[in-house]
Write a structure and sequence with these properties.
Elements: H1 2-17, H2 25-29, H3 33-42, H4 51-71, H5 74-85, H6 90-95, H7 101-121, H8 124-140
Helix pairs in contact: 1-7, 4-7
C-alpha cells in the first residue's frame, strides 16, 4: 500500500514539475479569497521551469524508468504493457502489480532518490510553491470520521 502511495506521489510530483507556468499573481490578487480557493481546487500546480530544468527532469525520469524496469520481472513488464495497450493509465497499471518485499524496498529507494534529485533541480521559490500546493491539498481532503467501536 505504501508503494502505491509513493508511486502516486512521485507521479504527481513528476507531472507538476513538467506543467506550464503559473497564472500571474496580479490577476489572483484582484479576486475574492473564496474564488482563489475554488480555483486552486480546480487547477493543478504549475511551475515555471527553465529549459535547463526541464531537460534535467526529463533525464531523471528516463533514468528512473530504466531503474524500475531493471527491478521488474519480465512478466511484470509484460503485465504493464498489456494493461497500457488496453487503455489503462501507466500509474494504475504499475500500482496493480504484486511486488516482492525486495522489489518494494528497491522501488522505494528509487522513488525517494528520484524525488530528491528532482527537488535539487528546483529553485527555492519553486520548492515553496510545491510545499504550499501540498499543504492546500491536505487541507482540502475531507477528514475521515473515526469509527466507534461496537
Amino acid at each position: 500500500m505504501k508503494l502505491k502511495n509513493l508511486t502516486l506521489i512521485a507521479g504527481a510530483i513528476a507531472l507538476s514539475l513538467t506543467a506550464v507556468p503559473l497564472r500571474s499573481t496580479q490577476a489572483q490578487t484582484n479576486q475574492q479569497p473564496q474564488q482563489q480557493i475554488q480555483q486552486q481546487q480546480q487547477q493543478p500546480l504549475r511551475l515555471q521551469l527553465s529549459a535547463q530544468q526541464q531537460d534535467q527532469i526529463k533525464k531523471i525520469r528516463a533514468d528512473v524508468r530504466k531503474q524500475i524496469e531493471n527491478v521488474l520481472t519480465k512478466e511484470q513488464r509484460s503485465q504493464i504493457q498489456t494493461a497500457m495497450n488496453q487503455g489503462t493509465p501507466p500509474q494504475q497499471a504499475f500500482a496493480a502489480l504484486k511486488f516482492t518485499p525486495q522489489q518494494q524496498t528497491e522501488l522505494r529507494k528509487i522513488m525517494m532518490s528520484s524525488q530528491q534529485r528532482m527537488e535539487a533541480v528546483l529553485t527555492p521559490d519553486q520548492k515553496k510553491k510545491i510545499q504550499e500546493y501540498q499543504n492546500n491539498l491536505q487541507r482540502q481532503q475531507p477528514q475521515q470520521p473515526q469509527q466507534k467501536p461496537r
